[in-house]
Amino acid sequence: MGRLTSENVELAREIIDRYPRSRSALIPLLHVAQEQDGWVSTEAMSHIAELLGLTPVEVLGTASFYGMFKREPVGRYVVSVCTNISCLLLGGEELLEHCEARLGVKAGATTPDGVFTLEDVECIAACTDAPCLQVNYRFFLNITHDEVDRLLDDLRAGRRDEEVPPHGTLTRVRPRVPAERWSGHGAEGLPVLPGQSR
Amino acid sequence: MAEADQKEKEEEKEKTTVTVTLDGQDIEAEPGELVIAAAERHGTYIPRFCYHPRMREVGMCRMCIVEIDSGRGPALQPACMAPVADGMKVDTESARTKKAQDGVLEFLLINHPLDCPVCDKGGECPLQDQTLAFGPGESRFVEEKRHFEKPIPISDLVYLDRERCVLCDRCTRFADEVAGDPLISFIDRGNHTQVNTFPDDPFASYFSGNTVQICPVGALLARPYRFRARPWDLDQVESTCTACSVGCRIAVQSSSNRLVRKLGVDVDPVNWGWLCDKGRFDFEAVGSDDRLGAPLVRAPGAEDLAEASWSQALAAAAEGITRARIRRGPESIAVLGGARGTNEDAYAWSKLARTLLGTDSVDAQMGDGLPAEAVVGLPRATIDAACAADTILLLGPDVKEELPVLYLRLREAVVERGATLVELSPVETGMTRYAEASLRYRPGEVTELVRALVDESAAVGDSERPGGLAPASAVREAAALLRRGSLVCLLGRPSLAEPAQPVVDAAGVLLDALPETTFLPVLRRGNVAGALDMGLAPGLLPGRIGLDQGRPWLAREWEALPGGRGLDAQGIITAAAEGRVGCLVLVGADPLADFPDRELARRALAGAGFVLAVDCFLTDSSRRADVVLPAAAFGEKSGTTTNIEGRVSRLHQKVTAPGTARADWMIAAELAFHLGGDLGFDSVDTIWDEIERLAPSHQGLTRARLASPEGFDGIVAGTVHDAETHGGPPSMAQTDSPGIQGALAHTKVDTLASSAMGTADKPDPSSGLAMQPPDPSGGGGGGTGTVAGRPAVLRWTPGPSAGGPPPLDRYSLRLVTSRRLYDDGTFVHHSPSLAPLAPGARLGVNPADLAPLGVGTGARVQVTSGRGRVVLEAVADPGVPQGSVALAWNQPGPGAADLIDVTLAVTEVRLETLSVPAPTSGRGSDA
Ligand code: SF4
Ligand code: SF4
Ligand code: FES
Ligand code: FES
User: Fold this and answer.
1) How many contacts does A have with B, using Cβ atoms within 8 A?
2) What is the pLDDT of residues B262-286, one digit of tens each?
């Protein structure tokens, strides 16, 4: 928890090498941290700053812009219920209330067992299938209250592990970029300006 | 032919400006100039918050929106982002412009708390002023404003009130672009954007105070000024900071006869408006309750100093001096100090010492600088010249710690303009990350490294490590950088644990090999350059002339001059310790704190016959004096000061000194009367006039010129009579393009430097370190020519360098010690906001040297040298090479001065552990 593990440091170094300017690796590294811990801690941000030659507050400045980088611990599953206009018209608010009742926490909170964090979100670009929600950013479209109950039960019981990995995992298959395509390498790499670390 | 030339020139001139129509009037602008700047130069102020001429434009606040027509019809555009173009039409008064300004201000005020009555900025606030001048008068916003916790400390010196912030990005840009300390940033960007630090990682920048000055609202507040005054009660004078020898131009402000604020003033050749936090906030010491306000005298045989009247104290001082003079001869009198006052102070003391005291044993440096001949006699560069040089060679202490605003200028030269920096230093410094090559050397061995770098005949073998540490390949690469074009060397003492000689020898080697090199001395004490110019060094007379050449010239106006060269600080202190000093005068000098060898200084104060101290505070040293005379401090006296470039600028009095304290020069003049003489001074002006008349380097630097607009930037002494032969004084006119001015200044100095070559006989650079005055016929050399009867200013030429490197003791570590910005110096110590920032004496040790001791960071270690023993906390520091240890100079408590023996070439220490190994602090490992 906190700083990146040695495997992740190695991964981070590889990611950094893909870019002509190390700072470009900032968001990918925040994802690595979030995948490791489920959220992005201050220790992780400091560590990322070290790896990139930035100050921690420069990392925070970027991390805090993105609502999907969680800077507080969240549950294994983050349930994001859309309450924007299309979903609202088709029962989004009711869906959120139902989730609240079912999980026993208000939107914005995490269940005491640390399994679920419930949040209401603005339009998640699935209006044609309203009302909808996401669990760890995987869509569940046109969903009814019964389906929500089943989904939450399945998640808690671990029956959906294949489909919905823990919060922070973007994808199970990590794309590898062959070294010859790293733009930070070779003579074609962008010139390093004076005073600038690569 | 000439006509064609003329025409071509005219055409060229035409091409160099563009014509813009501003509110119906045609104006000429520089190509690439921003509309907002061009308009301002022509008297039209376009309102702004984020635009700052010394930083990159960002177009953040939209306050500067005006109607601009670049040929495709008028459109609203931010004037701070739009470069001028030929034929452009700008309308700053159109109805659309007005509406846009109304809108932006109404919008900016939506979340602004309008707590002007309790805001420091109220009364001088750009948001207030521009709302009044350009704003809508009324807001339609009735909803709840954003709320944040009222001011939070973002550093030990700065508070941030996020509710007042208009998100202009000035402070954050400053921190990143100018200071290179991006420790504040916009976070939670969106509806809740705020400026903040990372948790537990404060904005601990040496330059944080600048953000307070440039914040266009009252969001950033300086702790030392907060709630201390209202702008309309402030009274101000233009002055120059004397906290170090960069000489930043400032405005000094007071309220109710107390200094409350220093603001940076933007001058091109020096500080560009910036100040360091020490310079900005050390005014607190001036108003300290600990200031001396009355003379103190120790009655014969008495334990304690007791208050006395000035006439009693001066009589006692005169008696002490006279007794020493009669019983032991004038050579037994010595004067230390004078680098903290004004030029006029220094001149008065220099004259008093040479005439009525009859001694040449005077030294403004405390054995912690460079030999005076080298400082005044080396071809000198300006700051602009250094920044415009192709290669900058650093051979001195950490510029960031000692001369902070010079660090900003150098950093800018490297980061923004691609100058090449080569650093030679015993440990990593604040400049290292900007250096293209940074070579380490073993303390005491810098001359060898420089020889390997510049002496083409000294081929470096592949396995050699010149200077003990740097691999041959790195040396060769750095050597090539030094020969890439113009070269300016920043020369100072990288470490006080070794003598100045190796550095001076290195400068000699450098000058021999690359005679076009110019030098910028890196010396810290506020007016050290001025004091040396005024002759406060043995063998030197005012105006950068040697004692012997100057004698016939000065003897016409000064009475008698001492027969031979006197002792420098180390000589004086050694002589005093041996009981050979009958009277020691300390003019703002504290040898117990500042002299590198505290044991020797202690014996000197005990061994000196009679001690007279002139000081603002009772220091460890002045406490031991027989008579203490209270001196006026910065802000309490007028005069001039000289920075490292030789630039003379003015100081003005703003408040009155406590009690009966008075300026150093007045004390010298009074003392002269009590000694039966007369210095002939009744004001700083009479002193300056005499300096201008008698000091060859200052000829032509008249009071009128210093007071003119030209003098606002300060005028570099020593270039003046040169300029006269070229038909006029150098132009110091303000320009918007410092780069251009820098280039000009560089050419000028280069010419000076090359004309300096090949003159006269060589002074012996080691003579400054001799214990006995050397044979006058052998040293103190310099130019021989005279200008209208005046002796020419001294030119320093390298002497033979002293022997090889000191033998290596493999069982010891070599000590490196240099200053930090915040230390136990008198002014920091007495400034409540700054004193806690002194980092303390911690011993930096290479991890590989610490490991065998079985301890890590935080362990207490006993450090033993041939001189003494101190117990310090160790810090594992990979920036310190193996075989060396680093210690900050002059921190509270025991430290480096207790370990150094000034007679040795290096300070060898051994470490022993004292405590159980502390866990290595910092981060644990991954697992
Ligand atoms: S704190 Fe001041 S300088 Fe910084 S962004 Fe806010 S208004 Fe601008
Ligand atoms: S750099 Fe020196 S002169 Fe400038 S503000 Fe700091 S202490 Fe004063
Ligand atoms: S409104 Fe819910 S997905 Fe667009
Ligand atoms: S001054 Fe132009 S946008 Fe701020």
Assistant:
1) 57
2) 999 999 999 999 999 999 999 999 9
